[in-house]
């Protein structure tokens, strides 16, 4: 079954404490990306990766890092989270074909 | 920069009605357009994908059309059911930099 798996699903953390949200796909897609979803603003792209070791900024990259060391994994790293990064985060997989999304990670930074 | 607009923002109709959701985009140079469904607090479920060379796609009671030159797509839902209640999102892919989403249509089907 085609799957994009994110972990954790829910996370509450404190300002400044580094965290990583993992994302893994089993479809051998080269393209992966991260989005955040906020009320009134919709879904906005944070970072994307066209292949292993190839990453680029999306529309709202400030405060985030990513890495792509293997094709199946694309973790999102918040080095020093702040309250304005409280949001619902989605990982997606798939390039010029159908995009598949993970179930989301609800992050709260206090 | 691509902009995607969805109209209406919210819609409430009685069960059984046929309905149309609209999506417009400003840059017609797209690879594809995808319609998603999102239930409250949940992930995105892909409904239909239309490649730029296609005019429409159908899946069950859903039919999506694409008019790339005018920058429009519609999602037609036939014989609506309460289980269709959700937010419907339209997204276009213009290139390597990923999907641009509309803000969605919040649909309620009254039993």
Task: Note the main attributes of this structure.
heterodimer; A: 110 residues; mainly beta; seven-stranded mixed sheet; four-stranded antiparallel sheet; B: six-stranded mixed sheet; five-stranded antiparallel sheet; 11 strands; globular
Number of strands of chain B: 11
Give the biggest beta sheet of chain B: 6 strands, mixed
Helix and strand succession of chain B?
EEEEEEEEEEE
Radius of gyration of chain A: 13 Å
- What's the number of extended β-strand segments of chain A? 11
Uncertain ranges of chain B: none
Kindly estimate the percentage of residues of chain B that lie in beta strands according to DSSP: over 45%
Query: Which bin fits the share of residues in helices of chain A?
Result: under 10%
Biggest chain contact: A-B, 27 and 22 residues
User: In percent terms, what proportion of residues of chain A is strand?
Assistant: over 45%
Instruction: Give the oligomeric state of the chains in this entry, treating copies of one chain as homo and distinct chains as hetero.
Output: heterodimer
Description:
The complex is a heterodimer of chains A (110) and B (111). Helices cover 0% and strands 50% of the residues of chain A. Chain A has 110 residues and is mostly beta strands. In chain A, the strands form 2 sheets. In chain A, strands 2, 4, 5, 6, 9, 10 and 11 form a 7-stranded mixed beta sheet that branches. Chain A has a 4-stranded antiparallel beta sheet with strand order 1-3-8-7, with no helix packed on it. Chain A has strands at residues 4-7, 10-13, 19-25, 32-38, 42-51, 54-57, 65-66, 76-78, 87-93, 100-101, 105-109. Chain A is globular. Chain B is an all-beta fold and 111 residues long. Helix content of chain B is 0%, strand content 58%. The interface between A and B is medium-sized, with 27 and 22 residues.
